[in-house]
Each structure stands twice: as C-alpha cells, then as structure tokens.
Amino acid sequence: MTSKTISLAHGSGTSASQTLIDELFISAFKNDLLATKEDQARISLNHLTADGNQLAFSTDSYVIDPLFFPGGNIGKLAICGTVNDLAVGGAYPRYLSCGFIIEEGLSMDILTQVVHSMAETAKAAGVSIVTGDTKVVPRGAADKLFINTAGIGVIPATLNWGMPQIQVGDKIIINGTLGDHGATILNEREQLGLMGALSSDCTPLNGLIDQLRPIKGIRTLRDATRGGVNAVLHEFSQACGYGMLVEESLLPLSSPIRGICELLGLDPLNFANEGKVVIIASEDSAPDVLDALKSHPLGSQAAIIGSVTQNPQVYLRGLYGVDRILDLPQHEPLPRIC
Amino acid sequence: MQFIDEFRNPTQVKSLLSQIHAWVKKTSFTAEKPLQIMEVCGGHTHAIFKFGLERLLPPEIEFIHGPGCPVCVLPMGRIDACIEIAKRPEVIFCTFGDAIRVPGRQGSLLKARQEGAAVRLIYSPMDALTIAEQNPDKKIVLFGLGFETTMPSVAITLQQAKQRNITNFFVFCQHITIIPTLKSLLMTPDIQIDAFLGPGHLSMVIGTHPYSFICEQYHKPVVVSGFEPTDILQSIVMVLKQFANKQCLVENQYRRVVPDEGNPRALAVINDVFIMQGDDEWRGLGIIPDSGVRLNETYAAFDAEKHFQPKQQRVADDPQSRCGDVLTGRCKPLECHLFGKQCTPESAYGALMVSSEGACAAYYQYRQGEPA
Amino acid sequence: MCIGVPCKITAIDPNQPTKATAEVNGIQRDVNISLVSSGNEQSLVGQWVLVHVGFAMSLLDEEEAEQTLTALNAMQEEEPDVNILFKP
C-alpha cells in the first residue's frame, strides 16, 4: 500500500480500488470464496444443510465514535455484533459480508488496523468474510468510517429458541457483568477523563452459546446491546405478554462500572453491552444453564438475575424488597452532577 | 464501595425502620395528619425513590420534595439565552449533563447540538477551561449551574482562568443560593412543612449554622442528612426524637462529611468571584428576593451575558402546570393533571419532569405499579 | 442535588500542587484539591475526600464515619413491626 490516506479514487473502481481490495481486504480476510473475486460468494448448500435445517440471516451497521476504544474498535465490533445476532437465535454463524463506507481522508493506517482486527475476530469466531464492498464519500459526507456486516448461519433442526416460548416462572440469566461497553464508550466519547480498568466487553459469544444448545428448557436468548439489559427485558415482555422482575442485589457489576455509575449518577441496566447475552430458561433448567455458562471463560460471572411474572410489567426489586417499575429510558444515559 | 456500602446495610435499615415506627408513636402525628418532612435536596429525593424508602415508612410520615435541584428551578428563558449563545459559530458551549435536555421555548441544548451547535458535555468546570486552552480560536462558555455546592468549583475555575490569562473563557452564571430559596418557601402562606432534611453536600460548603433561622423564626427542626439509606432513615429518627422531646434544633447527621462551620476556603472563593445581589426569578418559585448571583466587577470580563448580550427572555410557565405547587409542597406530582399525560419525561412541560432529580421525574420513573 | 462520591487521594501532581489523582473502585480521575489542602499536599495522599464535579470538597472524617456506624450497630433490635421488608 503506497497511499497514506483514503481518497475518492479508492472507491471508484480504478486501479487504486483494486490495489486496496487485493492488498488489504483479500489478503487480511484470506479465504477461498473471497479469493475468487466474483460479485457474489457462492456457498455450497450441502455444506450448510449438514448442520441444520434453517438459515439465519442478519445485518447490522456500525457507526461508533470513537473508532478505537479500550477493549476493541469498530472492526471488532462489526464482526462480534453480527456473529452474536446470529448466535442468539441458536445458529452456528458461518459467513459474513462486509460493506465499508469510508470518508475521504481517513488514514490508511487506521483502516488497516480496523481490517486486521476484523480478520482476527472473524478467525476467533470461526466465520469467514466472503464478500464485500467499499465506497468512499467526500469529506463531511460520513464520519470517518462506517461498516455494515451481514451474516448467515445455520440453526440445528432440534432447536426452537424464541420469545413466544417464554413462560411465567422462567428464570432470567445473564453471562456476566453489566454496562462495561456503554460506560467505556461514554467516557471516551464525552472525554470525561476517567481512567482505570475500563474496557468494552466486545467479544463473539458463539463459543459460549455452543455450550447451551444441549440444554432442554432454554426459551430464548438476546444479546443486550443498545439500551442495555433494560431494553432486552422490555422486548421480551412485549413479545410474550408477561412481566420481567429483576433484583438489584443479583445484578453482576464490575467494580469500576459501579464506581462510574455512582460518580455520574447512572444506572448500569441502561448501558450497552457487546458481550452479554440475556437468557430465559425454565426454572428446572436454570441451574444447568448457569453451570454451562460458568464452564466457559465468558460466563465465569454468570448469574440468575430474576424471573418471569404474570403481570406484564418490567420491574426492579430494590435492595430492601421494594419493587418499582423499570421504564425504558427516553434517551441515552448522560452524566449528572445532581 | 467504601463509605457507601456500609451505609446501605439491610439489617441496619431494618432496625432503623423499627426505631422510626417506635418513635412516631411517641409523637402526635397520625396517618390522617402525618409528619410532613421536606427533603430540600433533589439528591435525597432520588435516594428515597431509588431505595423505595417512602414505601417502607409508616403512614404517619410523608415526604415533601423540595426545590433543591438547580435544574428544576431553571427558568425557560434562561435556557433560550444559553441556546442563543451556543448557536454562535465561534462558541463551544459546555454544560453538565443535567441541563442538556431541559426545554426552553426554543427547544433544549441537546436539540441545539443536533442542529449543529457545539454543545459539549463536561464532568468538571475545569474540563471547560482545558477546552478553552485547547481551542484558542473559539470562545468557550461554561453554563455555571447549581447551588453553593457547585459554586466553589466554578469560582476556582474562574480564578485559574484569570491567573493564566485565558481570555476565551466565559461563564453563563445561573447559580442559586439556598437560604433565600428556603426563606421564600417558608414565607409561602399555606405551606405544609413540619421539618426539614438539610442538604448534605451543600452543607459541606456553608455548614449547618445558616439554617438556625428555620428553628428560631419558623420553629421547624432541621437535620442535615447524608444520602445513603441509613443516613436518611437515621435523620428521620432524629427529627422524630425532636418532636417527641418537644425540641427544635439544627442537627447534623452527616458529620463524616459536613463540619458545622462548613468549608471556609470554599466560602472565600465564592465571595472572591460572585456577588449576591438583586432579586431573581426561578421556575415554579417566582421572584425570590436577594437570590441573584452574578460575577463581580473583577470577573466582569468573563461574564458570558455581558460579552454576548443575549436577548433577555421572560417566558411564563404554562398556567396548566403546577410545578410551583409541587416545589412548595402544596401538591403532589400526581395531583397535577398534566402528570403522566401531556407531561412525561419525553414531552416535559417543566424541569421537574426533565431533571432526573425533579420530583415529577422521580415519581414517574420510580412509580409503583401493581405488585409483581 | 450535587452528586458527591467518597474517593481516595492516591497522588499529587508534582507540577501542579492543586491537582491530585483520586480513586474509587479502580477508577481514577484528576481532581482539584485547593478546597481541602492547607499547604502540605503530600499529607493528603491516602486521605478520603468527597468529590463533586472534579473537586475535592471536604475531607472525609473517618472517625465520624466510624461513630455513625457504631451508633447504628448499637441500636437495639426492637420488635420488628416491619413486615414489608424483604419479601420472599
């Protein structure tokens, strides 16, 4: 790569764009399907149907600011996000596409770092990036770099996870601490000057979810990204018509996140996560789910945080047993002084 | 967390509650004529709801949520003036998160940010000064907001700006002092307050002596309280004991943080930078005599209003909303007929619904539905 | 009003004696200590302070905190007529 920054030429089908595709994308994402350089990836159906009878298909766009943050970057996030969206449906994630929208003037070093991070994360998650696209827009038409990834995966015939399966009395389980990603990003984006052990939990969850497939009694899974665990509880409640009651004393929190929430007057339930899955499972199967989660490094701090109730509201039970309604926040959490 | 978790101990909460139940029987308060305690400070309001304390107390005790939330008493017109300044191309407008969603007539600072104004969230006034040093070609305006707790930090930031000769830094002064606010509240004719929980963090600046007039002239007990559950409950026990023993004193429950004489250095920097004079208008409270806070002559060059001359806006509060009645304890949020209908956190009529410390927002956010 | 959090002073900035590092739960933040320092800044290291908007506003009196807790612990458990607590 000779150029130091991305120019409009890199997205115009000229030799510059060929060089970018060959020397950066194809070389980093290395796989046979991508190497054919067709306009579409040609995927063997036999290969897919060997693992299941349903195709899971998902897409998401990533526009995070800042591009790099403790614990990850936009590239890692773009892989994890789509892998996790597939995995929470019970699918084995297999193939991803990725589309880059780049603002003219982005440094080649930054793009290279992002792309290598994507390659590394895809490898860790066991997925291949098999097709892609690059657009470069004039300065000011986009903010540095946007990435879209779409993915396909295969759901085994034996699985039927979904929100309609939720029943009263089921347990609400999470694989670890709340709010790490959201608090880290808030501190970076608003430059709040907080230092210390703050790191996004951005990670592919499919390895952890692999541990859950054999367990009977799992109703549904959802990764708790934007809006945090609170948003997921509301989605569950609306979809199944029952209520969700979580207990404050059961919520796993890392020490720094607790500190940040006290300092800034924020609630960890509303912070985004990028490596957390909320699981609804029957009361009988909950101990098995917990054991399975704890047997994996990404579930060492897993906890049962509440249960499904008849009354269709989302509640938080406070430290002294008082229940209160947990509303969906109207807006993103912002730090308070009072 | 040290000095926090020890004061949330459920066993102690339980025994404090039984103390409260026992002491309330030694007073003349009943469920029909309960003890009405005003917690002046929004921080107390927040804690009371967050921990569900109001539902654990006997029916003979009722909280009245006071005006001690600087965002809640922000007049709409002042927000409009801030927006006018923030929209100037040469300005970076720095605000605490609390004020960013408060509606003026022209929308909020957040809306101005969406429309392209440079509005920055800050954690500390010092951060605004750093932004000024990093952007010499811009004018940085700090929204100076808050009671005496926040005033010393803004004062020190201004002293530093002067010392370092930073000329592109300004303060939009919207500070408010607690004693005139309480005086005006106590002079309200039909006010129903028996005792006060004093604001803990404000008192670490001004001390506990300034509240003595509340006992002497108005015969109402004051207990300066911390913010953790056992602090608040212990303060209630102290109030009840005063009634049972027919006393009327200013007491300090929050001794670990609040010296009775306050922080003389903090008071000195306030006096070095600010001047308290004139009457000011506050949302829901109307005109409060002697509540005006301005930058003094020495710091006139840093006064954003002098420098930018925004239009003076007088915006009358919506006559349908009862913010003022809620602030003075004359009615509960639920008795305002806009509450939860036209007035929600999404479409707030008043700051009481916008500020997370506002009584209405707290009622809304922590309201109790059917038991699960 | 006025969120304040007890933090521990862990270091003083050698170049700016009014600036210190305060720590809580493994989170550090620069704070201004001019309202609590009386000339000998180094003596503040290890001291707990109440931090509001990046300023140490008050020295936390650990003895007073201890006394408050002792008083709470000494409270005799009376007949708990508080059935609403700790619902199953």
Automatic annotation (TrEMBL), chain A:
Q: Describe the location of the PurM-like N-terminal domain by residue ranges.
A: 41-155
Q: Check the record and name the Gene3D superfamilies matching this protein.
A: PurM-like C-terminal domain, PurM-like, N-terminal domain
Q: Which GO terms describe its biological process?
A: protein maturation
| Coiled coil regions, renumbered to chain | none
The source's domain of life comes to Bacteria
Q: Which residues form the PurM-like C-terminal domain?
A: 167-315
**Family stated for the protein in its record:** Belongs to the HypE family.
What is the protein named? Answer: Hydrogenase expression/formation protein HypE
UniProtKB/TrEMBL annotation, chain B:
Entry superkingdom: Bacteria
Instruction: List this protein's GO terms for biological process.
Output: protein maturation
Which InterPro entries does this one have?
Hyd_form_HypD, HypD_1, HypD_2_sf
Q: Cite the GO molecular-function annotations of the record.
A: 4 iron, 4 sulfur cluster binding; carbon monoxide binding; iron ion binding
Ranges in a coiled coil = none
Query: What keywords does the record list, in alphabetical order?
Result: Iron, Metal-binding
Question: What protein family does this chain belong to?
Answer: Belongs to the HypD family.
What is the name of the protein in this document?
Answer: Hydrogenase maturation factor
Report which gene this protein is encoded by: hypD
Automatic annotation (TrEMBL), chain C:
Kindly state a single biological-process term from the GO annotations of this entry.
Answer: protein maturation
Q: Which Pfam families match?
A: HupF_HypC
Protein name as it appears in the record: HypC/HybG/HupF family hydrogenase formation chaperone
Gene, per the UniProt record: hypC
Q: Which GO terms describe its molecular function?
A: carbon dioxide binding; iron ion binding
The uppermost taxa in this organism's lineage are: Bacteria, Pseudomonadati, Pseudomonadota, Gammaproteobacteria, Pseudomonadales
Gene3D superfamilies per the UniProt record, alphabetical: 2.30.30.140
Family as reported in the entry's similarity comment: Belongs to the HupF/HypC family.
Alphabetized InterPro entries for the sequence: Hydgase_assmbl_chp_CS, Hydrogenase_HupF/HypC
